[in-house]
């Protein structure tokens, strides 16, 4: 399905209800679904930020890399990488800014203008593929909720085409939400991936390790690393299955419920703040729509 950080996600046709209610987990999976869809259907050189850069340049040229980065909601480091790849492909010209020799100005080449038009059609097709599980009304509702939720992180000059892009908006919210959740969980000694696994085990334990991988929607290799971490922290016990010595059975250790409870409180407070532009009912509806988006195999 995609890779988020150092965790490889795979398709999970059925979502564990406890996970489907967690905003952070749903945005994590939705961002991976966006990445997977782009990987499978993109033309050469296309990624969401390369496309956004060409769109932003179409509204005002030349523009500094810093201004474009701010407009499309990405870091200067990411924009520098994207600009270099676009320049190598002959889609933008990149020259020193005469007003500030430490920065660069970007301008689309004729090939870049042509690519922007081509990629626009591809972006629309990608969006249709991404939202195939949703009705037209649900897609419109999801887009509206995402625009409102993403609003605090969007610049005034974020291109209209990107404000209408579900894939772009999912990425923007995830990139804002995940680091904040990672930081908030640090005092508990766990990360978001550990939290999701603990919540899952609270509902399915005792369970084989491969079952935890299935409900989390991650690869077998990824779940080994997650369980190794949880075992080292004294939160999970792993033992051989007497009926199948090749399988590992996972159970929660006595201290796990307290950690889960504290982490759940952190999750509620942080995600309420991250989605503060929405009412509680609208935030819940957004998470429901994301669950539908990710629960259908890509």
From TrEMBL:
It holds the Pfam family MarR_2. InterPro entries: HTH_MarR-typ, MarR/SlyA-like, WH-like_DNA-bd_sf, WH_DNA-bd_sf. It comes from the Bacteria. This is MarR family transcriptional regulator. It comes from Nocardioides mangrovicus. One of its GO terms (biological process) is response to stress. One of its GO terms (molecular function) is DNA-binding transcription factor activity. Residues 12-151, 163-295 form the HTH marR-type domain. PROSITE patterns: HTH_MARR_2 (PS50995).
